[in-house]
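**Fold tokens**
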Amino acid sequence: MSAFKKNIGVYTDPDHNLYIADATPHHEDITDPNKLKHGEVVVQIRSTGICGSDVHFWHAGCIGPMIVTDKHILGHESAGEILSVHPSVTHLKPGDKVAVEPNIPCHACQPCLTGRYNGCESVLFLSTPPVAGLLRRYITHPAVWCHKLPENMSFEDGALLEPLSVALAAVERSSLKLGDGTLICGAGPIGLVTLLCAKAAGAEPILITDIDQGRLNFAKSLVADKPGTLKTFLVPRGKSPEELATLINAELGQEPDVALECTGVESSISTTIFAVRFGGTVFVVGVGKNEMQFPFMRLSTREVDLKFQYRYCNTWPRAIRLVSSGVLADIRKLVTHRLGLEEAMEAFKIASDPKSGAIKVQIINKD
């Protein structure tokens, strides 16, 4: 136990500073199993992906009503190694690789009791203020939310399961079917994972949009060896949503059955509403500003279903099966940069710089 290093974390604060400092749990709390709560384990975090929400909390200090009001540890895309377990935990043991599902629901409210714990009224979601995130050396976490990884999956793979869970939830709730013409807006990490999932689900044809040609090129390379059609669309400046929808549908060759909107940008959401067919579905995955304007009568007169997503539930076991089996093994291609925990500030700069070419930046802890 003397080999344990001091616990540190990656923080932001209301003044938009980004820094490394001491973190909890402290040394004595992680080296003494008797201090663990019933059902808890100690995890040494090994890999953590930087999410757009982490950058947003740093730069903007808030996402909607979730506001950074004090020093705050970031990170919620993590995997690590079990160091110790409470005697009540029997399905995990020291040395096991696990992916950390970053929520602690109450198990008592209506959403929890109906299996949709992403809507838990009292959830503790790690990295959402004021709940500390996972960008630390060590954490304690309920064992039920630590998903054991098979031998053929790495810590890096485990850290990708969180964004994969977002895409799995989107594809399921959008009711995307085999042969559905599909529009994906945004070729950032979530848009690209959604592309992989839509391909695996049998969407055909698919068109993905972005304002960055480099990201569209990456999207093409990501599925270059997959059957079916992928078209890309570089969004031009100065066009109305209705004009963009016309251009997109001409490129796709049809009105899409399903649009998966992964940017959360108002004009992009409006574009999808104009684009989809009568009775089609617009499913908004992205997070945007508090209030937006949509073309209501287009939705109404075309019977377009407009649906939204809040995180995910019951996705981790499926995500593990899909990556481990090779069905979604190409998700590994998304990791473009790897930096150490002590290099976290540089990692965040790369992740937040559109010119860096980064898709997914991971912070690695080898200590």
Remarks:
- The longest strand covers residues 40-49.
